[in-house]
Specification:
The complex is a heterodimer. Chain A is an alpha+beta fold. Chain A contains ten helices and 20 strands. In chain A, strand 17 and strand 18 form a beta hairpin. Chain B has a two-stranded antiparallel sheet with strand order 1-2. Chain B has two domains: about 55 residues, no CATH class; about 220 residues, MetI-like (MetI-like fold), CATH 1.10.3720.10. Classes of the chains: A alpha+beta, B mainly alpha.
């Protein structure tokens, strides 16, 4: 339908007065990929999206879309289309006129623009609602209309600002499958801002984790999940125990970490200097209840909380200088050998389930 | 009351017994709350209007009123060409003043709502707009006289600059002066509701329009103007009803050379022709109500209220 464009962000910053919302980020989003900007609120992900869209001026740096530098172009000249968080449908226009709005601005004749709007509504299965006002639609329907309105401009990249946040959890999952299908069908670049790591993992080809106006990690979902680059990413993605301490021993393929007031833990990854502060991550679902912890790959701690989750059981354990260490144990394993709150339990994991986390130089 | 409900929950058989008195009791506070306003509106709006309507059918001579049911007052009012000309003149003022206040009011409100960035500054500038209203209507009107008069500020300046050889006479005591004073008096009634509507427009609509390629003018015509319609309608109702009922401005600023419906009524009253004035008032009321109904048919203002 249209050619996708790669987006190239080169050391872009956004400064409001004395506060820096986005600090010299660089990012390449390949053409035709589904990219999710992920992070907590206030991390600069929306600002980044709005800078790509042209609704926010760029303080320094450049943005390229395909082969054009779009830094100073108005939104409509960039080949991007934006879908707003609250959908921003025009309340005084019916669905078809909402979708046809950009064509009207271009001066397309009324019959033609209504016809093209109907085609676009068919794509999102909303043609039956063409004559309704936005206020008469449900949240999910409004979202589809907003999508059709953005797509009718035939964009090379579609920018979505938290498109699913206004939907109920059930609808969220359905709509996100539709978004993915639509992206595959249209084969254009999607940039999607979200604060839900589940959403990002389900949709993205490229996850960009942002914090404090900077990019912590940009990689495919599997890499982000299995090899979080920093402690922030590991914590934000969840399912990781982050252990902080000082490097006690540096080997070729990893380090041994000494936790203040407690045990020593080994992890594989980039070695650091002895004495440096470092973080390691242990996957919560790889931790097992063992017999005797192997030095460096386990510890014995006191169970502080037990949560039954059906197929698994979540244990919270304190010990060896670590607070609130989480272990997700398969239900069969747990009930074969149950423990109670307050009891000591030996936890173990395999050598390659513990990895060294990097730090952003500040 | 809660006790009655608790009781009803505990003992379903009690529900039937308690339902009737409890429904009356439940409604009672609402009636009591509505009473003061109903009394005030009844005593100061409904009763006078009914009285005027009744008096408009009475007979009168130079000294007395005679309770009666005659249609002479209406026949005289509607049959006189003076009435028709006066109505036409008043409507002319209404249309001109409406057009000017709408134009000025919209742009002032637009500037306040979209070009002033901080909420504090918006409020400060809005209050500045209301400063003239700290003085009375009459004083604001009369202050125009030294400005517009034969030897007033404008004429003196123009003559001294050599732009005109002799004082311009139509500045004061003319339709121009009437319209000028009315626009001055009533523009704020247009600014306030329009400003209110514009402030409610979601700013992301403007961004969405820009994203769709609309330029500033297109955004104004396609997004802001349609969404500002309810505010414009409310402002229009204010201005039209005020102008239709105005007599002081017309009298002072036209120097008695122009007439308005309300002025005609006042003259009738000073001649003690109360029934004639009442008939006139009823006609004016009907005309204005039709105008308001017409405005409400064109624009749905419900979402503003």
């Amino acid at each position: 339908m249209s050619k996708a464009a790669a987006i190239d962000i080169a050391s872009v910053s956004k400064v409001y007065g004395t506060t820096t919302a986005v600090e010299a980020i660089s990012l390449k989003i390949p053409a035709g990929s589904y990219c999710c900007l992920l992070g907590p609120s206030g991390c600069g992900k929306s600002t980044t999206l709005r800078m790509i869209a042209g609704h926010e001026s760029i303080s320094s740096g450049d943005i390229r879309l395909g082969n054009t530098v779009v830094t100073d172009l108005p939104p409509a000249k960039r080949g991007t289309a934006m879908m707003f968080q609250s959908y921003a449908l025009f309340p005084h226009l019916d669905v078809a006129d909402n979708v046809a709005f950009s064509l009207k601005m271009k001066g397309v004749a009324k019959d033609e623009r209504r016809a093209r709007a109907l085609d676009m509504l068919k794509l999102v299965q909303m043609e039956a609602y063409a004559g309704r006002r936005p206020a008469q639609l449900s949240g999910g329907q409004q979202q589809r209309v907003a999508l059709a309105r953005a797509l009718i401009t035939d964009p090379e990249a579609l920018l979505l600002d938290e498109p699913l946040s206004a939907l109920d959890p059930f609808l969220k999952i359905r709509v996100r499958a539709e978004l993915k299908r639509l992206q595959t069908q249209l084969a254009i670049t999607f940039v999607h801002v979200t604060h839900s790591q589940e959403e990002a993992m389900a949709l993205a080809d490229l996850i960009v984790v942002m914090n404090d106006g900077r990019i912590e990690q940009a990689a495919d979902p599997r890499t982000v999940f299995e090899h979080p680059a920093t402690a922030f990413v590991a914590r934000f993605m969840g399912d990781h125990n982050v252990i902080s301490g000082r490097v006690a021993e540096a080997r070729e393929d990893g380090i041994t970490l000494e936790v203040a007031g407690g045990g020593k833990f080994s992890a594989t990854g980039k070695p650091g200097e002895v004495g440096e502060v470092a973080d390691i991550a242990v996957r919560t679902d790889r931790v097992r209840i063992g017999d005797t912890p192997e030095p460096g790959f386990g510890f014995t701690g006191i169970v502080t909380n037990i949560e039954y989750r059906g197929s698994s059981v979540k244990l919270s354990v304190n010990g060896a200088g670590i607070e609130d260490f989480t272990a997700i144990v398969a239900d069969v394993d747990f009930f074969a050998n149950p423990v109670a709150v307050g009891e000591a339990v030996p936890l173990i994991w395999e050598a390659n389930d513990a990895i060294v986390l990097g730090r952003l130089d500040s | 009351m809660t006790a009655a409900i608790d009781d009803a929950i505990a003992n379903p058989a009690a529900l039937k017994r308690t339902r009737r008195p409890s429904r009356f009791l439940a409604a009672l506070p609402s009636y009591i709350q509505a009473t003061p306003l109903a009394l005030i509106l009844g005593a100061f709006l409904l009763a006078p209007v009914l009285m005027i309507a009744a008096v408009s059918f009475w007979d009168y001579d130079f000294a007395r009123l005679y309770p009666d049911f005659i249609l002479t007052n209406y026949a005289e009012t509607l049959g006189s060409w003076v009435t028709w000309r006066t109505y036409l003149n008043t409507l002319k003022y209404a249309v001109i003043v409406w057009a000017l206040t709408l134009f000025i009011g919209f742009w002032v409100a637009y500037y306040l709502a979209f070009h002033i960035r901080t909420a504090t500054m918006q409020m400060v500038l809005f209050l500045v707009c209301t400063v003239p209203f700290l003085t009375s209507n009459i004083i604001r009107m009369i202050s125009w006289i030294p400005v517009l008069g034969r030897n007033g500020l404008v004429n003196t300046t123009l003559i001294e600059l050599g732009i005109v050889p002799a004082p311009i006479t139509w500045l004061l005591y003319s339709d121009f002066a009437v319209v000028l004073a009315m626009v001055h008096l009533y523009t704020l009634f247009m600014v306030t509701p329009i400003f209110n509507t514009l402030m409610r427009i979601d700013r992301s609509l403007v961004e969405a329009a820009r994203d769709a390629g609309a330029n500033g003018w297109q955004i104004l015509c396609n997004i802001i103007l349609p969404l500002a319609k309810p505010g414009m309608a409310i402002g229009t109702i204010f201005v039209v009803t005020l102008v239709m009922a105005d007599f002081t401005t017309v009298q002072v600023m036209s120097g008695g050379q122009s007439a308005s419906v309300a002025l005609m009524m006042r003259n009738q009253m000073s001649l003690l022709q109360y029934p004639a004035a009442a008939a006139n008032a009823v006609v004016l009321l009907v005309v204005v109500l039709f105008m308001v109904a017409g405005i409400l048919r064109v624009v749905d203002i419900r979402k503003e209220l």
